[in-house]
Amino acid sequence: MAKHNILGKNGEKIAAEYLVKQGYDIRDINWRNGRYEIDIVATQGKYLVIVEVKTRQSDIFGLPEDAINDKKIRHLIDAADSYIKQTDLPFDIRFDIVSIICKENSYEIEHIQDAFYPPIQSKKYGY
């Protein structure tokens, strides 16, 4: 496995452990359906939380969460739609980001709740 893939997997493990400590229930890690992938699916109270995890070794090129652009957001929204249709869960949905910077023997973690909202207009759905 490539070094950046190992870093990403470690970041997802750190994020899942962090979320559990914060009272979240983890439903899935690395959920996949066709071309869709969600790093972590969790629940917290009345929310189904779709979590994108971004892990970096430093912030020299910007913060990890800065790598989430509009295209990635649209892809996550479509993935969440696929997950909801597949599981038919009765939750409100929220999109969070867990940003991790791994240092030699430690890490910095930032949890951004409600990091973005699905747009009202969507080309995919014709409105």
Question: How would you describe what is shown here?
Answer:
The protein has 127 residues and is of the alpha+beta class. The protein contains two helices and five strands. It has helices at residues 3-21, 70-87, and strands at 25-33, 36-44, 47-56, 92-102, 107-112. A five-stranded mixed β-sheet has the order 1-2-3-4-5. Strand 3, helix 2 (70-87) and strand 4 (92-102) form a beta-alpha-beta unit. The radius of gyration is 15 Å and the shape is globular. The mean pLDDT is 85. This is UPF0102 protein Cop2CBH44_30220. It holds the Pfam family UPF0102.
The radius of gyration over CA amounts to 15 Å
Shape: globular
Low-confidence stretches: none
Distance between the termini: 42 Å
Q: What is the share of helical residues?
A: 25-40%
Strand line-up in the sheet with most strands: 1-2-3-4-5
Q: How many strand segments? A: 5
Task: Please give the largest β-sheet.
Answer: 5 strands, mixed
CATH architecture of one domain: 3-Layer(aba) Sandwich
Mean model confidence by pLDDT: 85
Provide a count of the helices.
Answer: 2
Question: What percent strand?
Answer: 35-45%
Q: Which class best fits the helix and strand makeup?
A: alpha+beta
According to CATH, what is the topology of one domain? Trna Endonuclease, Chain: A, domain 1
CATH class label of one domain:
Alpha Beta
Order of helices and strands: HEEEHEE
